[in-house]
Each structure stands twice: as structure tokens, then as C-alpha cells.
């Protein structure tokens, strides 16, 4: 009977996963999704405008908000006259491209890959699991490099130590994907999400929007690195690896340790980073610093405009490493890496065009404001506030993440709706963004529609030919549950302690 029950449970799990995969596969890709959403906004604006929908404007007593019809003569003029402007004014576009220039050189010179390999191959045996998870979390500095570098490396490393390679793969995958939002440094995700948050706030409070800091979640996310590392290590050693049992396969792969040239390059890159940080600090720490500004340091031009700083901090070590390892010979190689990086961003640029139209239409029609006000009224009427409200928001974000893999694509859709709603309840936009990042990261590792999910399965099939979506998700579910519980507990403790979540951000309530 017990065996039959286990078989039934497995069948139910597989049917559920098949259902998620089937529904998700029917969704258009993010580019077409934003194109369709833009058309939907136009149609909805025409319908709601025709019935005369309006609400009282809470920011301007005595005035009402009405819906602008984008299918009217005036609306269609707006659509065509502002198509280019909506694209070029899509704030994350420039932010992401500029940041990726520096990250691209660091990645293509070999610096990022060597740093990850060096991390996990130079620590004591008893810390190898922790180093894998930690390296995975930190790999988000190089965007998606951790998926293709660290995940297979984790499997090879565990196999070479006589441990189950799939446990090593799972530990690395949990760190890379489950801890994607956390890092000890600012990554391209911070300005990307920060700009989308600013755009969601601007129609309601332009002054507040102008003061938003892209490092608004930094304190919380830096501490989260250690939380995810500890939890991921525990789940790997106590739950996942014992469940997998003893590995009896033959495929173990070959572990590549750092060469002398790579080690020399890494030391050179580290020294150059320290020198660069020292020189950059002169822009803000001294009283005469040109980027210090007139107020406190955290609200200075330096911290309010960190994108060029991130570019420099990745570019300089990347070039130094490349010169020392001969992957960069002259300025032409650096220019080629810049070009290759921008070539790889082609799909993002296309996405930005359609996402820019959607965000602009949503703002111009006042649908964002009206939906936020109506949504806040509905939630207020339900009596749901405080912790239950935050938990509901986390569940909504996590559910949507099962069907849309891109963190920026989801936030471009959700920020205009949820940031204003949460503002109505007194939660800062930075806090709402923080909650979204937690929900997004913790469900990445169980989403069959994650872009790299198929890649992870391919890596795993080197060690188990029969492994499929259900096997991988069942392996990763303990991480997802543990990360969610631990991160939510940490979030509420942080709230109750009243600790700032980022520089110049303050605590969670306005």
C-alpha cells in the first residue's frame, strides 16, 4: 500500500509538472508577450474610457483620474509620435547596456570563469559544499555565467571526491539560480530592477522617484549571501545527497584546476580592483570629493548614479586579467569584447522596445494609477494587511515566475501594478522590490520554463541518462522550500528590527 501511495504521489507530481510545462509552453516569448500586452492595454483603455471609469486622485484632492483612450484620434497620435521616445526612454535599456560593457570584458577575458573555478577548487574538503553554493550566489556578478560554468563544475568536483555528482550539480544550481538576487556586490540586476521601480513610482511621487537609489536593497541582499550559503549547504548535505544515495556510474569528468598563469592573472585583477576602489573612493569620501554632494554620502551623486562606477569596477580588473593571461593583447581586443557583449544583448534590446511601449501605455492611460487605487481599496476592504499581505504578494510573484523566466520581464509587468498598491499601504518601493526579488529567486530552481533549465538537465544526463524534468524539480524542491522559509523569516526579523535595507533607503515603511 505504501508503495502504491508513493507511486500515486509521484504520478500526481508528474501530472502537475506536465500541466505547468504545457501551460507555460503555450505562452509567447517575452518579446511577443509585451507586444500583446501593449495591444491589450490599448483595447482595455478604449473599453474603460467608453464606460467613463474614473477614481478620485489621492495625490490631488478634488481631482479625478480618467482613462485615456489609446484607440481614439488623440491616443493613436500618441502611439505613433512616441514609439521611438518610449523605447529610448525605457530606463533599464541604457542602464543594463552600460553595466554589461564592463561585465562583458570581465567575462570574455576569462576573469569570471577563473575566479569561480579558483573559489571552488581551493577550499578545504569540509567546506566544498558551502563554497559551491557561495560561488553560485556570487556568480550573478556575471549575469548567467554561473549556469554554464559552475553547475557542471560542481558535478565534476563532487564526483572527483567520491560523492554523488548530481548533489554537486544541485548545490551549484541552487546557489546560481536560487540565490540569484543576493550578492556581496551590486550586479546588473540592481540597476535593472531599480529603474523599473523608479518608473512605477514616478506617476505617483516624482520627487520620491528621483531619490531612488539603485543600491536600495544592498544591505539586505549582502547579508542574504550568507543565509543562502548556510541553508543551501544544509539541504545538500542532509537532504539531497542522502536521498540520491551512492553514485555507481562511470562518468566523472575531469576537474580543471587553475594554471599558474590564471592564478597570476587573478592576483593582478584583485590588486587592480583594490586600487580602483581606492581611487573611486576619493570621489566621495573626502569633503572635497567631486561626487560627494552637499548632503550625506548615501544620497550623494556617487551613490545615486552607480552604473558608471560598476562599469569601471568590472572593466579594469577584466582588462588587467586579460593582459596578464594573454587573452587581451591590445585595445582592439577590448573593443571586440565590447562589441561581442552588445551582440549578445540583441534580444534584450528587442525586448526593451516592446516593454518600453507597454510601460509607457500603462502610464499614459492612467490604468496603472486606477488599478493601484482600486486594488488598494479592495485589499483594504478585505482587511488583509501586514505580514499576510506580504505573504500573498510573495505567493503571487512565485506563481508568475513558474511561467515567465526573466526577472526584468516580470518586474516590468508587475512593478506598475504592485509598487503603487504597496505604497498605498505605506510600504516603500524599495521594500516591494526586495520582496519581489526573494519570491523570484526562490522559485527559479523549480521552474521548467527557466531559460537554463534544459541546460541543467543536459549536464545532469551525463551522470544519469534517465533524468528528466520531474527528477530535477524533485531534487530542487527542498532548496526552494528551505530558501523561501529562511528568507521570509529573515525578512520579517529585519522588518521588526527596523534595519535599513539599503543605503539611503531607510526601513520598510514610508
Keyword list:
mainly alpha; 1% strand; disordered N terminus; 510 residues; two-stranded antiparallel ribbon
Write up this protein.
- This protein has 510 residues and is mostly helical.
- It has one domain (12-497).
- Helices cover 70% and strands 1% of the residues.
- It contains 23 helices and two strands.
- It has helices spanning 2-26, 30-50, 73-81, 83-88, 91-108, 111-121, 128-138, 145-160, 165-178, 189-201, 206-211, 218-244, 260-281, 301-304, 307-325, 331-344, 346-364, 367-382, 386-401, 407-424, 429-444, 453-460, 469-497, and strands at residues 54-56, 64-66.
- One of its GO terms (molecular function) is secondary active p-aminobenzoyl-glutamate transmembrane transporter activity.
Brief summary of the model shown:
This protein is mostly helical and 510 residues long. 70% of the residues lie in helices and 1% in strands. The chain is globular and about 70 Å long.
Number of domains: 1
Provide the spatial order of strands within the biggest beta sheet.
Answer: 1-2
Tally of separate helices: 23
Question: Quick one: biggest sheet?
Answer: 2 strands, antiparallel
Number of strands: 2
| Radius of gyration based on Cα positions | 24 Å
- Residue fraction in strands: under 5%
Query: Approximately how much helix is present in the residues?
Result: over 70%
Instruction: Categorize the overall geometry.
Output: globular
Report, as a whole number of angstroms, the end-to-end distance.
56 Å
Topology overview:
Layout: H1 2-26, H2 30-50, E1 54-56, E2 64-66, H3 73-81, H4 83-88, H5 91-108, H6 111-121, H7 128-138, H8 145-160, H9 165-178, H10 189-201, H11 206-211, H12 218-244, H13 260-281, H14 301-304, H15 307-325, H16 331-344, H17 346-364, H18 367-382, H19 386-401, H20 407-424, H21 429-444, H22 453-460, H23 469-497
Helix pairs in contact: 2-17, 5-10, 5-15, 5-16, 6-7, 6-8, 6-13, 7-9, 7-12, 8-9, 8-22, 9-12, 10-20, 12-23, 13-15, 17-20, 18-20, 19-21, 20-21, 21-23
Transmembrane segments: 31-56, 145-162, 169-189, 218-236, 265-285, 305-324, 345-363, 383-404, 411-429, 441-460, 472-497
GO molecular function: secondary active p-aminobenzoyl-glutamate transmembrane transporter activity
Keywords: Membrane, Transmembrane, Transmembrane helix
Amino acid at each position: 500500500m505504501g508503495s502504491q501511495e508513493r507511486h500515486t504521489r509521484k504520478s500526481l507530481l508528474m501530472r502537475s509538472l506536465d500541466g505547468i510545462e504545457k501551460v507555460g509552453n503555450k505562452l509567447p516569448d517575452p518579446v511577443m508577450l509585451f507586444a500583446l500586452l501593449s495591444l491589450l492595454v490599448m483595447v482595455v483603455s478604449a473599453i474603460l474610457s467608453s464606460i467613463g471609469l474614473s477614481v478620485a486622485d489621492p495625490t490631488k484632492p478634488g481631482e479625478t483620474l480618467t482613462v485615456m483612450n489609446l484607440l481614439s484620434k488623440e491616443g493613436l497620435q500618441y502611439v505613433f509620435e512616441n514609439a521611438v521616445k518610449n523605447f529610448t526612454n525605457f530606463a533599464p535599456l541604457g542602464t543594463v547596456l552600460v553595466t554589461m560593457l564592463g561585465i562583458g570584458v570581465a567575462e570574455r577575458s576569462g576573469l569570471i570563469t577563473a575566479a569561480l573555478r579558483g573559489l571552488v577548487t581551493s577550499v578545504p574538503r569540509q567546506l566544498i559544499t558551502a563554497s559551491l553554493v557561495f560561488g553560485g550566489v556570487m556568480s550573478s556578478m556575471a549575469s548567467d555565467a554561473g549556469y554554464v560554468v559552475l553547475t557542471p563544475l560542481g558535478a565534476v568536483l563532487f564526483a572527483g571526491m567520491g560523492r554523488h555528482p548530481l548533489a554537486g550539480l544541485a548545490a551549484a544550481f541552487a546557489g546560481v539560480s536560487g540565490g540569484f538576487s543576493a550578492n556581496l556586490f551590486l550586479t546588473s540586476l540592481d540597476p535593472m530592477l531599480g529603474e523599473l521601480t523608479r518608473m512605477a513610482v514616478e506617476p505617483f511621487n516624482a520627487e520620491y522617484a528621483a531619490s531612488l537609489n539603485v543600491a536600495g536593497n544592498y544591505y539586505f541582499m549582502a547579508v542574504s549571501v550568507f543565509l543562502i550559503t548556510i541553508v543551501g549547504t544544509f539541504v545538500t548535505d542532509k537532504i539531497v545527497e542522502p536521498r540520491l544515495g551512492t553514485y555507481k556510474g562511470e562518468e566523472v569528468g575531469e576537474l580543471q584546476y587553475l594554471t599558474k598563469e590564471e592564478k597570476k592573472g587573478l592576483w593582478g585583477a584583485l590588486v587592480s580592483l583594490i586600487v580602483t576602489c581606492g581611487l573611486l573612493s576619493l570621489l566621495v569620501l573626502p569633503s572635497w570629493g567631486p561626487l560627494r554632494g552637499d548632503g550625506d554620502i548615501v544620497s550623494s551623486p556617487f551613490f545615486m548614479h552607480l552604473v558608471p562606477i560598476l562599469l569601471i569596477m568590472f572593466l579594469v580588473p577584466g582588462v588587467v586579467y586579460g593582459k596578464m593571461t594573454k587573452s587581451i593583447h591590445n585595445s582592439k581586443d577590448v573593443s571586440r569584447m565590447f562589441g561581442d557583449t552588445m551582440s549578445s544583448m540583441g534580444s534584450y534590446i528587442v525586448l526593451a522596445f516592446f516593454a518600453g511601449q507597454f510601460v509607457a501605455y500603462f502610464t499614459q492611460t492612467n490604468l496603472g494609477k486606477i488599478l493601484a487605487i482600486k486594488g488598494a481599496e479592495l485589499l483594504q476592504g478585505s482587511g488583509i494587511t501586514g505580514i499576510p499581505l506580504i505573504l500573498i504578494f510573495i505567493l503571487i510573484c512565485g506563481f508568475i515566475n513558474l511561467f515567465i523566466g526573466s526577472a526584468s520581464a516580470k518586474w516590468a509587468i508587475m512593478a506598475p501594478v504592485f509598487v503603487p498598491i504597496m505604497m498605498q499601504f505605506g510600504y516603500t518601493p524599495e521594500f516591494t522590490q526586495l520582496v519581489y526579488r526573494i519570491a523570484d529567486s526562490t522559485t527559479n530552481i523549480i521552474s521548467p520554463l527557466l531559460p537554463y533549465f534544459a541546460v541543467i538537465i543536459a549536464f545532469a544526463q551525463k551522470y544519469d541518462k534517465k533524468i528528466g524534468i520531474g527528477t530535477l524539480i524533485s531534487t530542487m524542491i527542498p532548496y526552494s522550500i528551505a530558501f523561501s522559509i529562511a528568507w521570509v523569516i529573515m525578512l520579517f526579523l529585519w522588518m521588526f528590527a527596523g534595519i535599513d535595507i539599503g543605503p539611503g533607503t531607510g526601513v520598510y515603511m514610508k
